[in-house]
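Notes continue from the previous slide.

Worked example: a multi-chain complex. Inputs as given:
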Amino acid sequence: MIGIFGGTFDPVHYGHIKPALHVKQVLNLSQLRFIPNRVPPHREEPWLPVEQRLKLLQCALKDYPGIVIDERELKREGPSYMVDTLKSLKHDFVGESLCLIIGMDAFSGISQWHQWRSIFKYCHLVVTTRPGYEQTNIAEQMNIDDYRFLADKITTHAKTLSASENGKILLQSVPQLDISSTQIRHLFNSGLDPGQWMPEAACLQLMRYKTDDN
Ligand code: ATP
């Protein structure tokens, strides 16, 4: 099974890396692919240009050989829809089962994703815990049909995923890091050091970019 972890990484932080590595270990994933998006469909223009987001990922992940940076969304025109990314991964990794790892915050908005129900034809979903986001709030944010569609697929047993190639949703607890890229941007813009929240090489590179801007 291959783990897929998409994001804007604006910038990357330990709240991306540590939960994803935990899932890799629990599910014994053969590899973990971090996929930065070029044009995030559900949010405004990122703080950092795409080349800088990618460079920071490269700096951050150089000491994590178990994580591959996958640039396919950066090379594709138009919005970075996950369904298109999964189709392309299926094409490249024939016969492999894919596990798309997302935080509980992203899961609560999944019914807004482009062709979201089709996603389950291509992968399992692994939904990780994230401080401040509870599963119990999800039902309130979705219409009942969408919620039922998802609820039918949910399991809390990791072994269930290996019984089928796709279509399950695993709720997985992971190390809790109360951090977001938004908080890092705020720290940085207030002149504070976000160093404890991201790998040192990425933090130093970010400082270089921001010093060059001024
Ligand atoms: P922003 O604050 O800019 O919205 P973010 O920190 O949420 O950014 P993204 O790049 O938007 O980071 O998120 C990519 C993925 O990482 C999403 O699935 C999100 O749920 C997950 N994620 C981000 N931070 C954490 C965290 N602290 N714990 C668990 N999952 C996280």
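Summary box: The two ends are 45 Å apart (CA to CA). The beta strands are 2-7, 31-36, 67-69, 98-103, 124-128, 154-155, 169-172.
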